[in-house]
């Protein structure tokens, strides 16, 4: 392995561009290659973001010995096939969330990683921000007493939002839950573990995907989590962690935290921690460190967490009657 940890990207689209931008602030990492089956797309991506190689074949890039790890950012419906191909080629994989379409696919992918003895992680970048580590520390040390309720939302309406877009396409694994609702689900899992009971309602559009959804989960000891997701409306993007002795508020894009507030009674303590880069750099460095130190999964985003998240979203979709062809 050369001094730089060289990343290859499969699916050089919008989110992959954010990851490539993050690599510029990921110490020790660099963009090396991109692969797309659309002629000219990978070449243009590498030219823009400073990589060295472009491929029109995923398989050809996976055969390149200089690629140290692969970031997968194809549509949700392709995650399993693309990640499996990379793992079987011996390439460590960082797969954009959701890891796959459902629990069955996630189990298959994780089993492949274990059989091939290759690193695999779901790209839940939220867990790697410095202030999210602070949130974990505060709750673990009892700064707000026992957690009783957690709230989080994530909804958007992009200008290009249209019924023919990716997030509205059932065949591509569209819908608000898998696109952005996965963030609150993962947040609840991080703080409260596996839910015992799950309830939820969704508006399912003409395309068959959930356009807006609200869900409530009951965890051990009666603790509750309440979340919402949307692809047709922007939500406040806030999170609250409510305890017996206080509360934590994460405002203004809680999934990319730059500030949190710790409340004890009516006293507020604001904690700001500006960070370098766009945030994708933290997960890229984490993967690099894990791979170089011989680990096959990450301690902050282990395989078991991905399975719990997949299972939870399966149960919600079953309630709403949202079914993908692969289910």
Description:
With 327 residues, the protein is an alpha/beta fold. It is 33% helix and 25% strand. It is built from 9 helices and 14 strands. It has helices spanning 14-23, 41-49, 58-62, 79-88, 103-116, 130-140, 176-192, 280-292, 303-320, and strands spanning 5-10, 29-35, 53-55, 69-72, 93-96, 120-123, 147-155, 197-204, 210-218, 224-230, 239-243, 247-250, 259-264, 267-272. The strands form 2 sheets. The chain has an 8-stranded mixed sheet, covered by helices on one side. Helix 1 packs across helix 8 (280-292) and helix 7 (176-192) crosses helix 9 (303-320). It is globular and about 55 Å long. 48% of the residues are buried. The model has no long low-confidence stretch (mean pLDDT 95).
For this entry, give a set of tags.
33% helix, 327 residues, 14 strands, 6-stranded parallel beta sheet, 8-stranded mixed beta sheet, alpha/beta
Q: How does the SSE layout of this entry go?
A:
Layout lengths: L4 E6 L3 H10 L5 E7 L5 H9 L3 E3 L2 H5 L6 E4 L6 H10 L4 E4 L6 H14 L3 E4 L6 H11 L6 E9 L20 H17 L4 E8 L5 E9 L5 E7 L8 E5 L3 E4 L8 E6 L2 E6 L7 H13 L10 H18 L7
Parallel strand pairs: 1-2, 1-4, 2-3, 4-5, 5-6, 7-10
Antiparallel strand pairs: 7-11, 8-9, 9-10, 11-12, 12-13, 13-14
Helix pairs in contact: 1-8, 4-5, 5-9, 7-9
Counted by DSSP, the helix tally is: 9
Morphology call: globular
Q: How many strands appear in the DSSP assignment?
A: 14
Radius of gyration: 19 Å
Order of helices and strands: EHEHEHEHEHEHEHEEEEEEEHH
N-to-C span: 39 Å
Query: Sheet with the most strands?
Result: 8 strands, mixed
- Nearest-integer average pLDDT: 95
Widest sheet: strand ordering = 8-9-10-7-11-12-13-14
What class, by secondary structure content? alpha/beta
Portion of residues in helices? 25-40%
- Residues in β-strands, percent: 25-35%
Q: List segments where confidence is low: pLDDT < 50 over at least 5 consecutive residues.
A: none
